[in-house]
Structures are given as C-alpha cells and as structure tokens.
Amino acid sequence: MVVGGIVLVTIAVVVALWWAGTAGLNGDKLVTARLDALRTGLGIGIGGGGALALYLSWRRQRAAEITLAQAATALTQKDRDHEHVEADARERRITDLYTKAVEQLGSDKAPVRLGGLYALERLAQDNPPQRQTIVNVLCAYLRMPYSLPGHRPADDAEETILRLYRERVEEREVRQAAQRILADHLRLGKGDIKSMTTFWPGITIDLTNAVLVDLVFSSVDVRAAKFSNAQFVGDSYFSDANFSYLADFNGAHFGGSALFARVCFEDFAGFLDVRFDGYASFAKAEFKNLAAFSNANFGSSAYFEQARFDGVTRFDAARFDGGVNFTDSWFGGTTRFDQVHFGRNIPDEVKMYLDAPE
C-alpha cells in the first residue's frame, strides 16, 4: 500500500507538472519543461522510495532487536530457573549431608561418631555459610556429659567394667578429635597458605560446662568464647590466642597447667572463681579492657611477667597459694587487689593496689 501510494503521488506530480507547468509553452521550452516535470516527479518518487526503504530497514532492525531482546530475556529467565533448581538441589544435598552426619554423632560406635565429625568438618569447609552452625554442633557435642575412663581395670575384671572402660577411652578419642577440628579451623598461622584456606573467621564457640581433655587452642583467633564452668583435664594451651570480643572462663577448673602466654584479650576476660590446680602462665598477655580474676584460686605458681592491663583489673579475694610473679607487668586503669591472699611474699608491683580506695 505504501509503495502504491508513492507511485500514485509520483504520477500525480508528473501529470500536474506535465500539463499545468507546460501550459502555453511550445518548441524547446515545452520539451525542457516536460523533462523538468519528469525529473521532478521521478525525484519525488525516488526520494519516497528511499524513505520507504529506510523505514523498512528500521522496522526490520527494530524487529530484530525486539526478537533478540525477547530471546535474551527468555535465556536469562531460563538461567535463573536453572540457578534456582541448582540452588535448591545444593541446599537439599547440604541438608541431607548435615542430617546424616548429625545422626552419626548419635551412634553407639566410636568410629561412626568420628566419621560424623569429619563429615561435618568437610561440609563446613566447603560451605562457609554453614560454618557457625556446624561449630555450634561440635560445641554441643563437647558439652554433653562425659565421665573420664580413670585407671585401666585389671585384665580379669568383669566384662561390663572392661567394656565401660573401653567405651570411655573411645569417647575420649572422639572428643579430642572434635577439639582438634575446632582448633585447626580457628588457627591462622602467619604466612601459612594452608591455614589461610582452612581458617574460619568470625566464629563464636560455646563450651560451657564442657569436659575438655588436653586442649590445644594455641594461636586460635575467635570472636567470642565461652568456657564458663568447663573442666580442663590435663594441660591446656591457649598461648598466642586472640579473643576479639569475649573470653569467659568464669568458674572453670584447670586440672593441669594453664598456658595463656601472649594471649590478647581485646574486650572482656573473665576468670571469676576459676581454679588453677597447676602452673598458670599469663606472661606477656594483653588485657585491653576488663580483666576479672576475682575469687580466682591459683593452687600452684602463677606468672604475669610483662602482662599488660589497660582497662579495669580486678583480683579481689583471689588466692595465690603457690606464689605469683608480676615482674614488669603494667596496670593502666582501675586496679583492685582487695583481700587477696598471697601464700608467699607480696609482689612489689601490686603493693600499691592493696585495699586501695575506689
């Protein structure tokens, strides 16, 4: 229709110019006028055809763009649907693995429980959003009641006694494996490429009331840690650790040596009512906010050489039965040593704080 219209307009212009524009002319002028009319009409026709061609080209381009856009939208939607399907499948797979691993922890067979621990470790390593949840599970396992195996019974003891002893020994191995898993992923070794890939940052642990055997948490870096009323069996190692928010050891019992050398407590360090049966070392430790040792009982030697107390420091009613060393320690905030019991000589570094007024 458009082409026909252009043709009709061209004919009409030619006719109009042919007759109206040549009226009264003759000879060469008539021929020239008619040629001009023909050229003008053809020019209009050609121009209209060119405009039509441009328009049709634009329409084709526009249609192609719309088609491509629709195809791209459909492809994007398909990709999104595929991603959702994959995400749902991945979540289901994670949930299944998690459920199976937790079920393994409830097994009465130690090897199965160990398998559950390592399955959870792999799951956390491969899925960072699940790490805190899995750490919570490991901590909950360690908080479960546990009785130490004690001395090995005689070989001719009753089978029930021997079996109970074996079960407790096996459970001790499982619990120590859980401790190692936590420590391995909370430790960031300086310049250690492997530890950079296995370190789980920003983790909070809750081991309240847990029984911890020969715990090695040296160089760990955690956001917050709760060890209140925990029982530490054997020697406990926290040297070079960093607690960025909370370190709660209130009411804990250290049956062996407790090593906190060079530990950095960035906020709250709670050692209220703690009992140290063995050697306790806080040499070069940093207490940047609150250090609370009120009612703490140091049954053996306690060392605080070059320790730095920047904030409020409380040793009220603490007992140092085995002697204490505060050589070159530094107190920068409010410090209290009220009613402290010193089994040996009172260190010169703390004499000025004894029963000092508020």
Automatic annotation (TrEMBL):
Keyword tags: Membrane, Transmembrane, Transmembrane helix
The keyword Membrane is annotated on this UniProt entry: yes
Regions that span the bilayer: 6-25, 37-58
UniProt xrefs under Pfam families: Pentapeptide_3
Protein name stated in the entry: Pentapeptide repeat-containing protein
